[in-house]
Amino acid sequence: MTSRTEQRAATRRALLAEGRRRFAVDGYHDVVLAEVAEAVGVTKGAAYHHFASKAGLFRAVVAEVQRELGETVAAAADAHTDPWEQLRAGCRAFLAAGADPAVRRIVLLDAPTVLGWDEWRDMDDESSARHLAEALESLVAAGVVPEQPVEPLARLLSGAMNEAAVWLARTDDPGALAATELALDRLLAGLRQ
């Protein structure tokens, strides 16, 4: 027998998983919280208890997907020992992640609109943007990138990456990712000493 705490945690996980699936497939505006609750076998009241609203569930799903995206970017970077290759690999992993339907629909297309730009950017900063700043700091410290304030450089590159990721999420061009990676390599090459 499970304790009430374990049962609540299991209910929350089930609602998050079903919400994530539905937000990725149907988009925020077509998801009904009561239907998410029904799909996992709980009452609408239980869903409201855990998340207060559909927006609350969405915010929790975005945070989860953003955290996973940050972990993916960090893992891709950590697979390399050379700081320059870490930067390239992390940036490429971020761009490629848009192929995941959850990242594409939830994080890149719906989150900026539903949550607003400021909240979306704050969540991005917490999950993956900090990895970019850390990578740039290590490149400046190693002399690979000229000495300069890292914060504006990280913001510029993050903005370019986010814009490219949103564009990739919206395009049907099968060669778009390869073309974007080539443009990224050229852009990054301009940063080197």
TrEMBL record:
Residue range(s) of DNA binding per entry: 32-51
InterPro entries: Homeodomain-like_sf (IPR009057), HTH-type_TetR-like_transc_reg (IPR050109), HTH_TetR (IPR001647), Rv0078-like_C (IPR049484), Tet_transcr_reg_TetR-rel_C_sf (IPR036271)
Coiled coil location: none
Chain ranges of the HTH tetR-type domain: 9-69
Top-level taxonomic group: Bacteria
GO molecular function annotations of the record: DNA-binding transcription factor activity; transcription cis-regulatory region binding
Tagged with keyword Zinc-finger: no
Keyword field: DNA-binding, Transcription, Transcription regulation
Pfam families, A to Z: TetR_C_41, TetR_N
PROSITE patterns: HTH_TETR_2
The name this protein goes by in its record: TetR/AcrR family transcriptional regulator
